[in-house]
Structure to design on (796 residues):
């Protein structure tokens, strides 16, 4: 048995049981990947550990990850935690071109053979590495003293000081001039103003600013104030929505937001040439700390020269030369060499912030027409199609971005890979790993936290972790509406109505609104049983992009109470609205939701018709699942089985398909064949993620906890009442996940049946009464209330 505690260095110890690094007894913060690598190093102390071995141990083989950045970021974090200088290491030695070696002596405590067994390195330490490992986050010190000088004690300091005195301070003055104090720190934010364009050529309007933003966002050290926050601040200042962010307005914005600096640029003509300028001013002192102008002979060279100026600014601002060199892809390679394409892309970003995702899509399509190899434009187009529910188009454009990912900056490449794993392969476990590396490499980027908090962890049922990621997103950008939507939704998933409501109020207090927030207010009112508030929140229909979605939520709520006729009308309205907006897959999801409800409530012929209509509009993943489930519940077993097999073949890696959609479908098919034990067997694979909120539950409002509900139905069919009660109670205990899904109401009826099987008549009658109370105004054509009353009467 390996030792439980490993001691090394100056008071450090690794605790296997607690999975913790401590120094002098105090826990040291270290994330999972750096911690796993540190355990690997210590277990292999004295031996060479190659980067390939690290990749295989941490991520496995065949990963779609930027593992080089991930390893560099992890090693940097380990060294920071161990106070280990890469130029003069005492713990982790870099073996150039090969890997790493742990060189500190280790003492084992709590092993099987002896309580304290000393372990020395198996090979003697090699010389320090020729090139230190780049420190991803660290800002350079104001005055750099070499480790060798520091190690020789106080005498060298005396001689250094004496030399300065003898030279009259000239050497020190030269040193400080050549190593100026960094202008910014890792906690500062920057306001990026518009470029002043006096050339008369509109191609530069917005384009150079967008290019500079892409360049500066490559830096793990710098942080730009988001465009959404800039627009909100300008509104508070009384500026019109289309006002340019001039240097003077930018300075006022900078002061209001307590940012550190304003960067503004200019483009002018000088004869046949261009003059490109860039200036940075400290908002607190008003002093200019960077001012550069360049003459550029050709328009085609402007983006290249802007890249060079951006890198020079990064170094002057305080970023280490190592990270500037590591993340310095030229702008024409990181985005596009076409100014016209970059202008269309810049316009799309502005429009998306001002008017929503759907409005920005045409501009991204134009950018791609102008440059068919514009990787980032494909990536953003894929993301925006995902926002509006067009998942097939999202996957198509994201796959193209993935093919072109080498034509993107490091942060954009992380975005592309993570979104590819979410939208194309659906492998959310890999996506979570990518986002972990992304966040470690770019600790000030909110996107990896947003992906985990909104698109990954909720599907996996990891709501506490999703909550933390949502909080981190808001911490990084307090004026990001999506962050508040994620946080409120995750509170709801955890049945915490109070904090969900408080989060929505915080968003409103900041003047933030979006279709997501309007719908969340409606959902919260439903969960609290506040019909009056639900009616008030129906005004969300007036928010652009929300009218069809609010109609779907109202339809789902009506169906929850058994008012299926009114629900059907609203569902069809939502389908029409989505089709009129040119969003067929979104419309098909709404139609599939109608089919699922009809099937659950016993209207089998109507369910089959609705499912066929949905498939005639779109064959997207979630549409196919909803239609297949409707066919299965309506008794069309062969059709549903064929569709389930197609779904598995089409998306073999997809987390939602593997752990939610297929288990629920195959369980329903097994129940059709009167094989409840086989259904229970099919559902075993779903256990790890069964409480998750799958993608189909986002727009269509169906699919959440279906594996749990189907398992309960299988236990009922097998006459195992106690097991069935546990499953249906699980559905009722997670109201914030289930929301108005039909199984939320039907679980009461099924719970009554399960308790009746156990012989507990009192609990059975209570469950039947709960269902009948919900359905007191239900459509008389639906047979379920009559069945419930008849079954309850038998218990009296």
């Amino acid at each position: 048995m390996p030792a439980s505690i490993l001691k090394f260095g100056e008071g450090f110890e690794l605790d296997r049981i607690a999975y913790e690094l401590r120094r002098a007894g105090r826990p040291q913060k270290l994330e999972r990947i750096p911690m796993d690598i540190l355990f690997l190093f210590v277990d292999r102390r004295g031996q060479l550990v190659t980067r390939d071995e690290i990749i295989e141990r941490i991520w496995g083989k065949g990963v779609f990850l930027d593992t080089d950045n991930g390893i560099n970021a992890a090693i940097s974090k380990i060294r920071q935690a161990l106070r280990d200088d890469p130029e003069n290491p005492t713990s982790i030695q870099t073996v150039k071109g090969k890997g790493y070696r742990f060189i500190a002596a280790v003492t084992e405590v709590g092993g099987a053979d002896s309580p304290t067994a000393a372990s020395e390195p198996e090979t003697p330490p090699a010389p320090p590495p020729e090139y230190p490992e780049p420190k991803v986050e660290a800002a350079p010190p104001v005055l750099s003293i070499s480790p060798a000088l520091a190690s020789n004690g106080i005498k060298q300091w005396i001689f250094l000081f004496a030399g300065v005195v003898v030279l009259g301070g000239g050497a020190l003055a030269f040193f400080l001039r050549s190593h100026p104090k960094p202008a910014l720190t890792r906690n500062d934010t920057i306001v990026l103003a518009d470029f002043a364009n006096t050339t008369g050529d509109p191609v530069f309007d917005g384009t150079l600013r967008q290019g500079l933003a892409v360049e500066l966002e490559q830096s793990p050290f710098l942080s730009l104030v988001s465009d959404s926050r800039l627009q909100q601040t300008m509104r508070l200042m009384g500026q019109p929505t289309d006002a340019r962010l001039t240097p003077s307005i930018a300075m006022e914005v900078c002061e209001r937001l307590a940012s550190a600096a304003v960067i503004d640029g200019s483009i002018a003509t000088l004869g046949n040439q261009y003059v490109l300028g860039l200036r940075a001013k400290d908002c607190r002192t008003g002093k200019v700390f960077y001012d550069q102008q360049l003459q550029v002979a050709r328009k085609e060279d402007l983006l290249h020269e802007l890249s060079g100026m951006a890198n020079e600014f990064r170094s002057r601002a305080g970023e280490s030369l190592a990270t500037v060199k590591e993340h310095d892809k030229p702008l024409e390679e990181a985005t596009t060499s076409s100014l016209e394409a970059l202008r269309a892309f810049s316009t799309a970003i502005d429009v998306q912030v001002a008017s929503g995702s759907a409005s920005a899509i045409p501009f991204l399509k134009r950018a791609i027409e102008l440059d068919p190899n514009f990787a980032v434009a494909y990536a953003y187009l894929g993301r925006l199609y995902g926002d509006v529910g067009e998942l097939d188009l999202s996957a198509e454009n994201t796959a193209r971005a993935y093919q072109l990912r080498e034509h993107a900056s490091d942060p954009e490449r992380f975005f592309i890979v993570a979104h590819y794993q979410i939208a194309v392969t659906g492998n959310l476990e890999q996506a979570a790993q990518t986002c972990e590396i992304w966040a470690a490499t770019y600790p000030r980027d909110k996107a990896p936290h947003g992906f985990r908090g909104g698109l990954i962890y909720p599907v996996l049922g990891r709501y506490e972790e999703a909550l933390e990621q949502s909080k981190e997103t808001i911490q990084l950008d307090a004026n990001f509406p999506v962050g508040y939507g994620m946080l409120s939704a995750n509170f709801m998933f955890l049945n915490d109505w109070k904090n969900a409501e408080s989060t929505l109020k915080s968003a409103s207090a900041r003047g933030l609104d979006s279709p997501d927030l309007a719908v969340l207010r409606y959902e919260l009112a439903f969960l609290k049983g506040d019909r009056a508030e639900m009616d008030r929140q129906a005004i969300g229909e007036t928010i652009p992009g929300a009218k069809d979605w609010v109609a779907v939520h109202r339809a789902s709520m009506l169906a929850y109470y058994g008012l299926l006729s009114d629900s059907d009308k609203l569902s069809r309205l939502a389908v029409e609205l989505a089709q009129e907006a040119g969003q067929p897959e979104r419309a098909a999801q709404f139609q599939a939701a109608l089919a699922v409800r009809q099937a659950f409530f016993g209207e089998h012929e109507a369910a089959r018709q609705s499912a066929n209509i949905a498939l005639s509009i779109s064959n997207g993943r979630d549409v196919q699942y909803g239609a297949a489930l409707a066919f299965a519940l309506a008794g069309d077993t062969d059709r549903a089985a064929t569709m389930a097999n197609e779904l598995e073949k089409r998306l073999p890696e997809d987390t939602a398909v593997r752990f939610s959609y297929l288990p629920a479908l195959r369980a329903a098919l097994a129940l059709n064949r009167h094989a409840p034990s086989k259904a229970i067997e099919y559902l075993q694979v779903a256990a790890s993620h069964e409480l998750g909120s799958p993608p189909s539950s986002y727009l269509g409002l169906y699919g959440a906890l279906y594996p749990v509900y189907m398992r309960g139905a299988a236990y009922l069919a097998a006459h195992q009442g106690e097991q069935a009660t546990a499953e249906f109670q699980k559905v009722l205990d997670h109201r914030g996940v289930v929301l108005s899904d039909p199984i939320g109401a039907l679980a009461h009826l099924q719970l009554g049946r399960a308790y009746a099987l156990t012989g507990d008549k009192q609990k059975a009658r209570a469950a039947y009464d709960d269902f009948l109370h919900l359905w007191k105004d239900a459509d008389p054509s639906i047979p379920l209330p009559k069945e419930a009353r008849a079954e309850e009467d038998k218990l009296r």
Notes: The mean pLDDT is 85. DSSP finds 39 helices and 13 strands in the chain. The chain has four domains: 5-134, 190-333, 339-524, 545-793.
